[in-house]
Design a protein that fits this description.
mainly alpha; 5 helices
Amino acid sequence: MLRVGRTVRDAAEALGRPVTGVQTMASRLGVASWDSILAPTRERMRDLAAEGWASSRIARRLQVPVEAVDFYTGRIPS
């Protein structure tokens, strides 16, 4: 769920688990929550996408998952 842009709270509610439990398991599995991607970073993603940058290049530049770039820019993941 986190990899497709759902929040930790959303995942916890859907799974019937505590938020801290979902955070712990996500950490153990190496899945980062996108909750920590701040608004300025999301805005920068959209700006770079509008300039024609590829999602992978944006992800490398901003050090975020390419799936997050695709999600926040409205691109369909390839």
